[in-house]
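RECORD TYPE: protein structure
NAME: Fucose-1-phosphate guanylyltransferase
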Amino acid sequence: MAAANALLGVALREATQRKLQRFSELRGKPVAAGEFWDIVAITAADEKQELAYKQQLSEKLKKKELPLGVQYHVFVDPAGAKIGNGGSTLCALRCLEKLYGDKWNSFTILLIHSGGYSQRLPNASALGKIFTALPFGNPIYQMLELKLAMYIDFPSHMKPGILVTCADDIELYSVGECEFIRFDKPGFTALAHPSSLTVGTTHGVFVLEPFNYLEYKDLEYRCCHRFLHKPSIEQMHHFNAVCRPGNFSHQDMAGGDTTPLKLESEYVYTDSLFYMDHKTAKKLLAFYEKIGTLNCEIDAYGDFLQALGPGATVEYTRNTSNVTKEEAELTDIRQRIFHLLKGTSLNVVVLNKSKFYHIGTTEEYLFHFTSDSSLKSELGLQSIAFSIFSTTPKCSGNTSCIIQSILDSGCSVATGSVVEYSRLGPNVSVGENCIVSGCSVITEAVLPADSFVCSLSLKMNGYLKYSTMAFGVQDNLKRNVKTLSDIKLLQFFGVCFLSCLNIWNLKVTEELFSGNKTCLSLWNARIFPACSSLSDSVTTSLKMLNAVQNKSAFSLNKYKLLSIEEMLIYKDVEDMITYREQIFLEITLNRKQFDLEAS
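PREDICTED:
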């Protein structure tokens, strides 16, 4: 099994490096017709996020980090109720129609959903999940460049239509040298990856039509009988979604976000991205125009794909177990989508040599960037990526990960931690399993193990300020209570939140929380000081963190306090980009000097 896994790793590494090389050749150059996407569109949750994305796209184009001659757009969700990635898809279709009229019926379009606030990975909250930095490349790759690179072969083998993907996942695959993934059938076409049944419970699972296995293939085109959204293991068996070892070796079954499966293991095919042809997209657009305003969250996977295939039934429209917020009109809208799409085919591209990685939580982020030897090897991730840090990382097992940062040689970063876009001085000690983002620490400082520390630039009343969110990497920022008397149920760095407020000398009042006063959480708790300098901001937030850990008083009364929710409202994207650019230029200059001295 180990040998088979190693062979798969080599195949994925070679296929991935070829795609990265091809994308590298297109960066900063005008692309020929049909060579690349006609349109790349990113969704945003609100106007602040839309502006942040547009600023970053503009910077990338100016620095020639993206292919040129492509239309890059940011499509913002309408103000009001959350509409989910399904609603965002419908909204994007309307934007395309407004911008291009009938012209877009001949375009290949990549639509990337990046409209969330990334509460489970808050270092991506301010600038967006699609702009999450990855530990490789010069300049550093972000998720956007990786997506464009991994899909580099798609546009030239695709009929006009839209490829829909999410900002926080990575699909790696290998197919035969002369083979390409084709998106040329009517209806929907989705990629499918072999996964354990446990992984299937958190993904979409395909129930495939029977197929005569004449030989094992890396790439198979199959028809889907029905699509199950986050099914139980019992449901997978009941609907015949489970595959059992057959005539071919399951060397392809290792990993991604799963543990390697044994040879005799059962498995299922899970989803990642999907394509819809232009005719289907127009049908969905007509539906959206007819309903006018959407007031509930629609899931592009659960609500579109479950309506497809000959085995689809209407029952799922009434199942709200996987819904974050149940709105009155959700069932009605789901049923209308079901009847609209019923009879539409769901074609499946089975990628037997593929892996799917999700990087949407602090736990996944730390694991994949520091401990996961498979992804490191397949994608060429580095322990020190475009940074100044003289300490040599350990060669095997857990390491730290440094991304576009300047660290003094006297600074120490423990294993399992990630530092990005930061400056750390000689007397800074970062504990294990920490995330440090956008920080500047000049004075002596200790970051306790399992700390999350992320600084944002803010524009408040015309003045530049800084605030640093600090908590535990395992803290649940989404967990909320309805009343002030229940805030004792919240936890900050593993400690009762009420105890923390006592340590910080803060009173429990409604003013302690921003936004919705019946949804109280760490996300909207006003506990983070706004300071005049970046280094003061980090130092102050570390003092409040250490006070909780040491159970020693540290009063926050004298500070202007903000919630993370408010930080995102006040964020100064331009200053954050400038800070990153300053680090970039300093590293570039340092490398040039080093090269001169070496020669």
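COMMENT: Confidence is low (pLDDT under 50) at residues 247-254, 258-263.
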